[in-house]
Amino acid sequence: MVRYADDFVCCFQYQDDAQAFYQALIQRLKMFNLEAAEDKTQIIPFGRFAERNCKSNGEGKPPTFDFLGFTHYCSKSQNG
């Protein structure tokens, strides 16, 4: 988990864990009459196998995301 003020990014190895966390987060926020910003909340493939898995699913490159003014790309450098 990376957090700054009221923004955060959570990273998971497995999609099932990410979805379970998201559902638990929604329920926890409801307890305090809060909700997640739907336009800023998403579960995306990212990490070591994301590019390979996206290509094998016919999706092209993995999606990017913006956090703290930076766009995060899941790819390799020119040197691999």
Task: Give the fraction of residues assigned to helices.
Answer: 25-40%
How many individual β-strands? 4
Q: Taking all residues together, what is the mean pLDDT?
A: 86
| Largest sheet: spatial strand order | 1-2
Helix/strand order, N-terminal first: EEHHEE
The fraction of residues assigned to DSSP E strands is: 15-25%
The largest sheet is: 2 strands, antiparallel
Please state the overall shape, judged from the principal axes of the Cα atoms: globular
Count of helices? 2
Structural category: alpha+beta
First CA to last CA: what distance?
A: 26 Å
Instruction: List low-pLDDT spans.
Output: none
Radius of gyration: 15 Å
Describe the structure concisely for a colleague.
With 80 residues, the protein is of the alpha+beta class. It contains two helices and four strands.
Layout of SSEs?
Layout (H helix, E strand, L loop, with lengths): L1 E3 L2 E3 L5 H17 L18 H7 L8 E3 L2 E3 L8
Antiparallel strand pairs: 1-2, 3-4
Structure description:
By secondary structure, the protein is α+β, with helices and mostly antiparallel strands. The mean pLDDT is 86. The protein has helices spanning 15-31, 50-56, and strands at 2-4, 7-9, 65-67, 70-72. It is globular. The protein is built from 2 helices and 4 strands, in the order E-E-H-H-E-E. Strands 1-2 form a two-stranded antiparallel ribbon. Strands 3-4 form a two-stranded antiparallel sheet.
Which features would summarize this protein structure in a list?
80 residues; alpha+beta; two-stranded antiparallel ribbon; two-stranded antiparallel sheet; 2 helices; 4 strands; globular
